[in-house]
From TrEMBL:
GO cellular component terms given for this protein: mitochondrion
CDD domains: AdoMet_MTases
Matches recorded under Pfam families: Methyltransf_11 (PF08241)
Protein name per its UniProtKB record: Arginine-hydroxylase NDUFAF5, mitochondrial
Lineage: superkingdom: Eukaryota
Gene3D superfamilies, per the entry: Vaccinia Virus protein VP39
SUPFAM superfamilies per the UniProt record, alphabetical: S-adenosyl-L-methionine-dependent methyltransferases
Keyword Cytoplasm: no
Keywords for the protein's UniProt record, in alphabetical order: Methyltransferase, Transferase
Organism the protein comes from: Mesorhabditis spiculigera
InterPro entries per the UniProt record, alphabetical: Malonyl-ACP_OMT, Methyltransf_11, SAM-dependent_MTases_sf
GO biological process: methylation; mitochondrial respiratory chain complex I assembly
Molecular function GO labels: S-adenosylmethionine-dependent methyltransferase activity
Domain Methyltransferase type: 62-153
Amino acid sequence: MMVNAHTLIFISQIFDRDLKRRQRDWAVQQEDYSAASHLREEIGWRIADKVFDLTKFNERVLDIGCGTGFISPHLIKENVRNIVQCDLSAEMVHRSNGCPDAGVEVERVHCDEETLSAFQPASFDLLLSSMSAHWINDLPGWFSRCYNLLKEDCPFIGAMLMEDTLYELRCSLQLAELERLGGVGSHISPFVKANDVGSLLGRAGFEMVTLDSDEVQIGFPNMISLLYDLQLMGESNCTYKRASTLRKDVLIAAEAIYKAMYAKDDTHPATFKIVSWIGWKPGPNSPKPAKRGSQNVSLKDLEQIVQDPEYHKKLAETLPPKPKGKDS
């Protein structure tokens, strides 16, 4: 199933948020929980790295859907003064990692990241969201709520799973069920398209929106270990229309299909497609894009300009003089 910007307006309840809370609560209490956190750790680091690119200081930051804290450990006092972590799961947010930099204060709030009802409008200088927004039911409304939480001239940086995530697992299960049952059930949650994320950000009021798409591939010894890791990550399916059972013979057939179609060197790859974004709430100091047609030079003339001897002469005049004693 594909979710796009149009269907999101009409479909208000896709995911069972109470089930998602219970999945996260269960996952974080398992002894081997941290062994399945590599993906969220990687994306959390990437989000923090984008914070370092900001030239503005961020007095108060909100980490939406923090999990056990995958962004905060990488932040420093030169960028952030106070970070508020919130998550649907009380078990996760109470166990969340703080910031090793003593100059950064960390506040933990148990709050559903879909409603964000615990926070006041225009109360944050920066919003962060890492790997939780793909479980939001009302994405258009959610982006609007995030917009309202920001002060003017402040950004929203985030990342979420997008379409074609876990396509190897999806195809293997569908082919196995077609073979054994003559039909397919819903075992993998729906994901949005990258372009729809940009559209929703723009509709919410964000400007200067930038999108990036990437993929992370993780190898597993077999399909069953992948399914268990998804449970430990709190990423199991929680749609209302999910299949209630998965027969043993279907699992065995799906494992065989997975191995035959995708396995390499006895490793079962699982692909996670990620869309990341940054969007700014406009204000008096916001950068503005140049007006269309305001450029002085056309790109189609670039080759001619580069080959022009007069251009090279003018360029040479702008270069600093060559140090004496140095060969050309």
